[in-house]
C-alpha cells in the first residue's frame, strides 16, 4: 500500500512539473496594435553639410517589447518619418532615451506578463515563467535588492544580443550614427565588435552605433546612478567619460543625472567634445512639474546653488544641463531625450529639449511621440 501511495504521489508530481514546464515554455504572440505616429516638435537651424542632432522621444508600452521585431517596427516608423521629412543624412546623429534597451528584459514573455496591472506583478510573472534563469540569477545577485538585481540579470545575455541587433540594425538600415539610449547589463564591454556581458555588477550603459551598425568604442557607463543605493545598479567608479568620433564631430554621452554635474562637462571639454547627447528618464507621470528633490544619494557639487524644492523637476533638468553654456561647456550643441510611455503602473514624464548657442528649445505643448531636430 505504501509503495502504491509513493508511486501515485511521484506520478502526480511528475505530471505537475511537466505541465508547469510546458506552460513556462509556451510563448504565444498576441494581437498587436501600436501608434506609429510621431510629430516634429522642435526644428532649429538651417540645413547645411554639417549634419544634425535628432532626438527621438518615443512613447512605449510593455507590448512594444513583446519581441525585438515589434520594437523595431515602431522605432523604424519614427526614423522613416524623419527620413521622409528630410531629417536624415550621413552626418545625422540620432539620440534615443535612457532605458530604451533595459525593457528588453520582458521580450518574448507570456501574455500574463503584458496583461499585469502592476510592475511588481509583471516581475513575478517574469520569474515564474523563467524558473531556472531566475534561480541562477538570484544566486549571483548583488546589491541591497537581490530580487531586482536578479530580474535585470536573468536574461542579460539575450538582452545584449537583441540590443545590438536592434539598434545596430537601425543605424545601418538608416545610415545614421545612433546613440542607443541605455541598457542595464552586468559589466558590459565591446569585444571584437560585439557587445558582451560579464559576471560582475550591473551598469546602466549606452552604446553608440556607427552607420555600419557596429559599436563605436566602448559602452559609456553612467557615473551617477539614482538607483545605485536602492536597486544595485552600480555607479561608474572610474568616473571616465568617452569621446566618440562621428561624421558630425566628437560626441560625448551623459546618461541621465550625469548631465547635472559641472565636472563632467569639463571632462568632455578636455577631450574636445563638440556635441553632447543626454539619454534621460524621469519616473512618475507628474514628476516633471513637482518640486525637485535634489541630488539624492550624492553630494551637491560646490558650484551648484540650487536647493531641493525651490524649483520644479523640469526646471532643474533645464538649469543643470550646461551644454553650450560657456564657460561651463564648450560644446556647440546637445539634445536631452526622455523616455515616455506607461509600463504597468509606472508612468513617466520629462520634456525633451535641445541646447544650442547657450539657449534651450522645448515644445512643452506637444503630445505623443516627438522628434527634436537641430541642424549643426
TrEMBL record:
<dbReference type="Pfam" id="PF00795">
    <property type="entry name" value="CN_hydrolase"/>
</dbReference>
<dbReference type="GO" id="GO:0016811">
    <property type="term" value="F:hydrolase activity, acting on carbon-nitrogen (but not peptide) bonds, in linear amides"/>
</dbReference>
<dbReference type="InterPro" id="IPR036526">
    <property type="entry name" value="C-N_Hydrolase_sf"/>
</dbReference>
<protein>
    <submittedName>
        <fullName>Carbon-nitrogen hydrolase</fullName>
    </submittedName>
</protein>
<dbReference type="InterPro" id="IPR003010">
    <property type="entry name" value="C-N_Hydrolase"/>
</dbReference>
<feature type="domain" description="CN hydrolase">
    <location>
        <begin position="147"/>
        <end position="288"/>
    </location>
</feature>
<keyword id="KW-0378">Hydrolase</keyword>
<dbReference type="InterPro" id="IPR050345">
    <property type="entry name" value="Aliph_Amidase/BUP"/>
</dbReference>
